[in-house]
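Quick illustration for those who missed Monday's session on complexes.
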Amino acid sequence: MIERCQEDARPRFGPRARTAVVLAAAALLAATSAAFLPGTASAGTTLGASAAEKGRYFGTAVAANKLSDSAYTTILNREFNSVTPENEMKIDATEPQQGRFSYGAADQIVSHARSRGMSVRGHTLAWHSQQPGWMQSMSGSALRQAMLNHVTQVATHFRGQVVAWDVVNEAFADGSSGARRDSNLQRTGNDWIEAAFRAADAADPNAKLCYNDYNTDNWTHAKTQAVYNMVRDFKSRGVPIDCVGFQSHFNNDSPYNSNYRTTLSSFAALGVDVQVTELDIQGAPANTYRAVVEDCLAVARCNGVTVWGIRDSDSWRASQTPLLFNNSGQKKAAYDAVLAALNNGTTPTDPPTTPPTTPPTNPPGGSCTATLQDGTRWGDRFNSTVTVSGASSWTVVVAVTSPQKISSTWNGSPTWDSSGNVMTMRSNGSGNSFGFTTMANGNWNRPVVQSCTAS
Ligand code: G3I
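Prediction with G3I bound:
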């Protein structure tokens, strides 16, 4: 069994205890490439790049069958640095027949994302809905075993590629009862949720493991409080939970409430990360979109925001036009509001930690010089900016100290060595500087510029 340590003492992307060296933040890089990367986007002009400058990601749900739509992928690749498969990792998609797993569509999305430096949220391992027929007809210990095997197999398949999993989705009932939702999974025993988390933990110790739900956004609602109590209980008993996802499907019947920030911060205070996982808002009012983003930015442990689709026509409720791009792929007012919120957002304060001790190193390299400057610092990570002089087209090599991991970059095109600790950044026309976020993972050494070469 995996023992969990004091979460409160850990950095934001705190690990499960067995992986004290491989902090959960390291999962942000998965096995070989950086996560939450904004690709070639420019800071301040795209959602992903602007979020990265705030140490966050900005993601979207993606449907595999739309990856052949160039209008769709143009926006996806330009704007987003995190991806959640909309349906392709669900149980009916990944295990259509018992014991026969099918990963084609999900692998396609993962490959598209990771090859462009986007991170992947996994959705979802255990859910009462979208179960394949064989599972729907199961019950009792056979269902429990089948569910655990599904969690194990799928989490194992994507190990190192998925930075956070919605391990369990929508397990609580709507309304005022505060009860668990009745389902075949729930009827296998009240401990089915923690059993799923332990199975996911064993299969992928480095992924962040989330509980995800809707109508848990309003702090006063019974469902919110019920999930809060479950998470508090899990933390007290060492159940391996790292994060809580707030779907945030806001509409006229279930509107955004200004206590949303209280909800996020209250859960975060339990020692879990919080993520806005499926955001869409009926009519896409700019002010509400702005408020949601500002609320996330105000909570240090809010890692990022995912919208549930790109264009209104991609939405599961398209008639409500709830997204940031219209059917033609044009930016809506809500897009501008979100971008402004990301760019103006305040940096949450975390307790100061020991300043970096390693002196800057800027050895000459070729015919250009790269100078590293310290940027914003949080409790678990810090930004750095590198300014290049002497060349307009350049290649700069930067190294961080293991177990540090670079979790996002902007204004350049990065590639990585096999360790993930040495980044080769090439100019991409965005100017003579680039930036990146380093997950400290307990080590606050300053990144080192190893070389600068005109190219
Ligand atoms: O792909 C088939 C298509 O071949 C077929 O002709 C058509 C006929 O119904 O169905 C298509 O599949 C649909 C699938 O979306 C892809 O469009 C399913 O019927 C439909 O049920 C499915 O809906 C998804 C829904 O989850 C299922 O519960 C939505 O796309 C997806 O956005 C939605 O996402 C959920 C999250 O997972 C959890 N939170 C709520 C959120 C919104 O409901």
